Amino acid sequence: MFLPLSFRLNMAAAVIKKFFIASMFMWIAPLAILYGFNHNLLPGSTNLSPHAMTLVSGFVAVISVNIVIAFYIYMAMKEPVDKHEPDPKFLADAKASVSQPTGKAPTSSESIKKRE
Asked: Where does the UniProt annotation locate this protein (predicted)?
């Protein structure tokens, strides 16, 4: 089954778009979390010591990146998979070229004599 070129290009564009969006979230989410913790925008962050706030904000930022990656993997797994079938003429030509004799191959006794 061969897909038209325009359909394959649209699929490629959709994949690139998803990759770009996931990449943007991988930058935006941790920076927004760090900004929120440092400017006391998140509830409960005012009760933390500076050391604890640094640890918690870093941990939550790393977790956010892993969540984005997991979501991107999930979306990639949902992509349609079209099994590629090779061209039948190409397969026939390849099988014919493999089965064609190329000449007289030396027998095992002849190759032993040549080595001696």
From this structure: Endoplasmic reticulum membrane; Endoplasmic reticulum-Golgi intermediate compartment membrane; Cytoplasmic vesicle, COPII-coated vesicle membrane
